[in-house]
Amino acid sequence: MRLLVLFAIFCVLSCAPNEESKQPNIILIMADDLGFECIGSYGGTSYKTPNIDKLAQSGIQFNQAYAQPLCTNTRVKLMTGKYNFRNWTAFGILDPEEKTFGHLMQDAGYNTCIVGKWQLQSYDPPGYPGSEYRRDTGMKISDAGFDNYCGWHVGHTEEKGSRFANPTIFQDGKFLEATNGKYGPDVFVNYLNDFVNKQSDKPFFVYYPMALTHDPFSPTPDSQIWSDEARRLDNEPKYFGDMVAYADKLIGKIVANLEAQGLEEETLILFYSDNGTHQKIYSKMGDKVVQGGKGLTTQAGIKVPFVASWKGKIDKGQQTDKFIDAIDFLPTLLDVAGVEIPEDFQTDGESFLPILKGKEQKRRDWVYMSYNPKPGAHKAHLSPAEFVMNKQYKLYGDGRFYNFENDVLEANSISPNTEKEKQVKERFQSIIDSLKKYPTTGSIERLAPELDSVVSKHARIDLVAEGFNWSEGPVWQARGQNLYFSDVPENKVYKWNDLDGLSVYMSPSGYSGDNPIGGEKGSNGLAIDENGDLILCQHGNRAVSKLVSLKDSISPVFEPLVSTYKGKKFNSPNDLFYDKEGNLYFTDPPYGLGKKGVSELGFNGVYFLNKEGDIKLVDKDLARPNGVVVSNDGKILYVAESNIPKPLIWAYDIVSPGVVKNKRVFFNPGEIIKNSTAKQNPDGIKLDQHGNIFVAAGDGILIITPEGKHIGTINTGRTTGNCVFNDDYRYLFITADNYLLRVNLRPYAK
């Protein structure tokens, strides 16, 4: 009998739930545009934040928590656990191919829910330059790994409606009706609490990216003016304090609901922010006034509040200086859930669960950021940045080094003088080198002060791809943010973008016949016409052709636009340029003829092809016409002559389409080439938005003002063929021998 009793007791104990193994609930709250200086527990004195302060007092406050300077950058980083350089596409866009922490928490056995601001599917408004290539390319809220959702800004920006008074809210597959008179943040939190109250069979994960305290700075239901319905959508910074108070109130409402449901011991609450406060807002920390730094890489833009509370699991009243970044949340969520990071999933983050449990953890004592606010509407005033920092020092990727403990606004870059500073800078540089996507090569020679406004003194030359025979003819395609370029001797066109890297786009590219021929046989110069079609200067086919179909990379179908002049075959069309009316200028030197090839024409020409297909000879007196471009105002034609004894860059006045006069030498690079190592004769030529000429010659790319002054050279360290700008003129791509290079012309801003 005694054995039976003991056996029964054993069964009861073994069948009882193990509280330690039970997966806890998690609520991750992320405020919008709320810097650390606004929170009472961090020393903020301008606003009342009793509920956030209580979370900090009941758990742990992180005093070195950081986020990206802008919201999308942080949201993408937070939800995927990756540095932005790995998966950034555009502002307001989350790559739909990515896995989010929503997907992973579903896989871990959780019921998942998101409420609040989405803004990751479509951002640019119609008509914004490049918007047609980015609109509606992001992830839908319904595909992001959440079983239930209640969100704002789930589609196009121009259709987003209000997030505050009379909100536009998409909830579980349909837009809510009868929201007039309601307040968006109330709708979100009511939905959140209802979701929590319905859970019983599985643990839950709730992600609440708040709409508060982002502008417009509008009244809340607790503002005195709320009773005046006509004023509810006012936008004045004076309401920011009301918005902070209301955000805090809603957090209190979430906590109170957990307590009412008896879930506070089973639920981890994380409160974070996506970036610093809006720059229009000035807040106090005692006697110190702090201006918001949203969009900037200074402390006011990136240092954010982060507190964690978990009754009975996290000791009360803790503070820590351990570094936390947005990448750390995803691995922490999985750690809390008790599951491993999937083998096929890459994260840059480190779980901070040991810190929550009060355990010692050896983790990084620095933060690295790769920040790019572009492309995206209304981001022209912001610039990308890359840096590493700890509690005292910060090193940018361009070499600027700050002691921001003494210089919080980073007004003066310092040279490391002490042994400590030298060691810190050296260590930070090694971190940047290990994390940055591309190695640096070459150098930039500055010959005049004017260059600083064209190519930032902080610019560097990135090696983004290599291994070609002779790279040439790059063209930028705004749609998809792709670069195409030729490998002339290999008869290939490559495609490159920052996310997917390099791939063969087509082969053959310039000679599509069956019988091998000698000489340079591939395509050279490339262009995109007004219809978005790829146009190729084909050496082997001796034609300017359009790519009409590409079933796969080895099956291109071309349609010649023009292959003869007065019934005689071209030598080898080399470079080309479309003017604003869609007419084409191109050059026809002898390179593709090979050593034994004979020109049918008997000269090397510069040609004009109008939209109707009519061709004109512009100039037949150049020995080696090469790069060609038209000035931004359409009045001047520039041609680079790659003539070994007499290399020149010519200018012509355009009288009418295809008709020129006043041929003259614009620039003579003879001495530069003579004194160079590469001895490259003038080749490809491009103009920036200000009319500055970028021409391949000498040891790289010469930069010449519209007045003909040589102000600097991008030294590639190789013979250099051509270059092209991306659509916002921030990046210059260079084809140089076996390299594809990229120069971020205006790389950094605070």
TrEMBL record:
InterPro entries documented for this protein: 6-blade_b-propeller_TolB-like (IPR011042), Alkaline_phosphatase_core_sf (IPR017850), SGL (IPR013658), SMP-30 (IPR005511), Sulfatase (IPR050738), Sulfatase_N (IPR000917)
Binding annotation for a divalent metal cation: E472, N626, D683
One Pfam match: SGL
Domain spans labelled SMP-30/Gluconolactonase/LRE-like region: 470-736
Keywords on record: Hydrolase, Metal-binding, Transferase, Zinc
Cleavable signal peptide: none
Active site: D683
One term of GO molecular function: transferase activity
Domain of life: Bacteria
Cofactor(s) of this protein: Zn(2+)
Binding site for substrate: N574
Cofactor comment text: Binds 1 divalent metal cation per subunit.
Stretches assigned to the Sulfatase N-terminal domain: 24-339
Family: Belongs to the sulfatase family.
Protein name: Sulfatase-like hydrolase/transferase
Originating organism: Seonamhaeicola marinus
Taxonomic placement: Bacteria, Pseudomonadati, Bacteroidota, Flavobacteriia, Flavobacteriales
